[in-house]
Amino acid sequence: MVVGLATAHRNLQRVTDDLGRFNPPDIDLALAQSIADTGQLCYEYAAVVLECVADGFDAAALTHASELREQLERMVSKLQVVDYVHDVEPEEDLRFERALGLSTAAMSAGDGLTYASRVAAAWAEHPDLDERLRAELPHVLDPTISLQDTVRRHLAHLLVSDRPLVAHQAAVAARDLVLYALSSDQSAALDAIAEEVSDQPYGYSVHRHIVSAVRAFNQASEPADLLRFAMQMYLSVAEGDVARVGRLTLRLLGRQVAPATTLGPLVRTLTAMHGEPMCALLSSSVKLAWRNAIAHGRGRWDSVHQSALLGDEHVDLYAICDEALRAHAICEGFEAGVAVALNQVGNPHEGGDASVDEIGFMIRIGRTLGAAGLPVSKLDREGTTVRPLIPPLTILTMDRLHSALIQIALHGGGAVNWDIRQPGDRPPYCISAEAIDAVLALRDTSSIGESVIEFPISGLPMILSGLLAHDPGSASITPSLIALAAVNIIGERERLKAMLAVGDTAARASLLRTIRRTARAVDAAAVLAGPGQKDHLLAFARLIAKVGQEFPAGAIPDVASMQSLEIAFRSSAPARIPWLNDDA
Questions:
Q1: Quick one: CA torsion of 161, 164, 169, 171, rounded to 10 degrees?
Q2: Planar angle of CA 403, 404, 409, nearest 5 degrees
Q3: Cα 246 to Cα 150: distance, rounded to the nearest angstrom
Q4: DSSP label of 29
Q5: What are phi and psi of 419, to 5 degrees?
Q6: What's the first-to-final CA gap in the chain, in angstroms?
Q7: Long-range contacts of range 284-292, CB-CB < 8 Å, 24 or more positions apart?
Q8: Cα–Cα nearest to 520, from 489, 542, 496, 493
Q9: Which of 50, 76, 149, 392 is buried most, with the most CB atoms less than 10 Å from its CB?
Q10: Which H or E run contains 314?
Q11: Which residues on adjacent β-strands are paired with residue 379?
Q12: Which residues of the chain have pLDDT under 70?
């Protein structure tokens, strides 16, 4: 019982330390003071009980202890007590609604790899969220600095952390540490951060292990099973997150740390440097005796004492979970702080031709699709094929999809084949790397010298690729492409009709540009088609080019001059796109 009392006191001290760095809101100051007074009285009562026992239950000491107990009971009765349920992930969770005004269900619809996609989609829909971050995180953010996507992702997660106290402490400590390191030796600091980023695939693997262990822990009922999953969680966090963040922390402080440095030496060094806030947080997050017992198979459920036994120490199995999740939150807070610091100094790590690892590339894919209004809920890669699961496509969002895929290709996407999946029974939309290359070849130069790819018409090669993959023998493939190409020109003419009627030269130039780009897009698609389809498409491309050539300088394109395109559209429509929503 004395050991249990001492353990409870240590836990209370740790929570008090975590709380001590934060000032409660004014409305809670009285309650906070009551809690602090109650905690102090708990300590005094425990001390008097121990003294009473040591003195052989002396009558005076016993009377003093009884008085303190009565006083303590009166104080506790005045506090609002909230029952604590041992559940790592509560079912009713509205943290995103509270923190950012977003739907928790929507923000949680997917895994950690696709989280960046949902954040990008939220910001695309609610650009004012930057101001909300600044209002809620004044202790982390410089209000004068614009925010970059990576910072938004980390801070959105920080705001809904399971362990907000230590996560926010770590974010502030890491921000200050990185700013100090960058000011001391920017090159060395950036090298250290780049090496940590190169370990991102391993970090994601640890994240998946933790998520899997948490889910299994919440579903288990037998103590031995609960302990097994708790130990898996603890070991993954200690050997993965804490070791990785610990190495970077020490390097940013100017210490030489070998990549293979193990957890034990790291924790001892961090403990010796406890005057540094980040070192203090990390060293408090790992109990080496627990780690050693778990790693060496010395952890089991003691049914006699109804507790976990790690080596020779009896431990509450829920405490193992709590310590693991606390350590994980510290490391996530650290990553948020690093992102904030880099953003604050202009993101110098993004210069040059730094390569992007597999996980970084997948996060970039999700972020780009999310920013296009297509949040990804699942993302897989198999060789050169990337398979995202996105919301149901419409004709409008298909154009956004095409543009996003080209943006990914332009920013280091390489030769990637796409297997676009949607919920329900919509067939896959498969786009080959050759189709992406064909669209890239359609790049044009704008009037101000910028490189542009005009959508929707430049998406024709991608649509053809998808139609061929769906049913290569379908008789509707060529008519569908002709219908889309023809309506692109007819629609532009209708849009400019009033201006064309009064001889507006800018409107005429715009229509001729659309005609030329449409002909090029049909040509590019034809290269991917089979022999019969190819000839038909090339012939239609020549027809479009001929229409454009029939407008001499100063002439006004009228209905008659486009009659051939009108006929082609009527004979080919409607375009049959099987992966589009029925209501598209």
A1: 20
A2: 100
A3: 22
A4: H
A5: -125, 85
A6: 68
A7: 284/14, 285/242, 285/323, 285/326, 285/327, 285/330, 286/238, 286/242, 286/327, 287/323, 288/263, 288/264, 289/313, 290/234, 290/315, 290/320, 290/323, 291/234, 291/235, 291/238, 291/239, 291/263
A8: 542
A9: 149
A10: strand 313-315
A11: 388
A12: 17-29, 80-93, 351-355, 413, 446-447, 449, 550-561, 582-584
How far apart, in whole angstroms, are the C-alpha atoms of residue 457 and residue 453? 9
Pick the closest to residue 391 from 382, 401, 381, 403 (CA basis).
401
Largest CA distance in the chain: 115
Q: What tokens appear for 157 in the block?
A: 């997660």
CA–CA distance, 555 with 503 (Å, rounded to integer) = 8
Q: Which residues, at least 6 apart from 573, have a Cβ–Cβ distance to it below 8 Å?
A: 479, 483, 487
Q: What are residue 419's DSSP bridge partners?
A: 430
Residue 413, pLDDT score: 66
Pairing of strands 429-431, 417-420: antiparallel
- At residue 204, the pLDDT reads 84
Taking only the tens place, the pLDDT of each residue in 325-339 is 999 999 999 999 999
pLDDT at 84: 42
> What span, in angstroms and rounded, lies between the C-alpha atoms of 322 and 317?
9
The rounded distance, in Å, linking the Cα atoms of 242 and 254 is 18
Task: State the amino acid at position 174 in one-letter form.
Answer: A
pLDDT of residue 507: 86
- The pLDDT tens digits of the residues spanning 304-319 come to 989 999 999 999 989 9
Task: Give the model's pLDDT for residue 342.
Answer: 95
